[in-house]
Amino acid sequence: MSKLKYKITGFARFMMFMVVFVPLAYAGFTLYKGESPQDGFTDLKGKVEALKTKIKGNSLSESEEFQLQLQQKDEEIQKLREALFQCEQGRS
């Protein structure tokens, strides 16, 4: 009977449990709130990235952030206009 050279520690077992349990618990929580777990994870990812940039001090100024939001909204409006145009062309 061969003995294992290394044994797993209690802390390693705890960390493996947390790697599995925490995402499942978060997904369950978002489902309980009536939201999609995928949207919850996407929102969480955005919050973590914002926190990282805030900690590093590389955060955008308010005007730059506002300009970025305006640019994203302009792109979305353009996509919606194109979709509306295609729908109108289909009816004709």
Present the secondary structure layout.
Elements: H1 10-32, H2 37-56, H3 62-91
Helix pairs in contact: 1-2
Q: Any idea how many domains?
A: 2
- Straight-line distance between termini: 80 Å
Instruction: Give unreliable regions as ranges.
Output: none
Shape label: elongated
Count of separate DSSP helical elements: 3
According to DSSP, the number of beta strands is 0
Radius of gyration: 23 Å
Largest sheet: none
* Residue share in helix: over 70%
Structural class by secondary-structure content: mainly alpha
Strand content: under 5%
Helix-strand pattern: HHH
Q: What's the mean pLDDT score?
A: 85
Description:
With 92 residues, the chain is mainly alpha-helical. The protein folds into 2 domains: 52 residues, no CATH class; 33 residues. It is 79% helix and 0% strand. Helix 1 crosses helix 2. The termini are far apart. The mean pLDDT is 85.
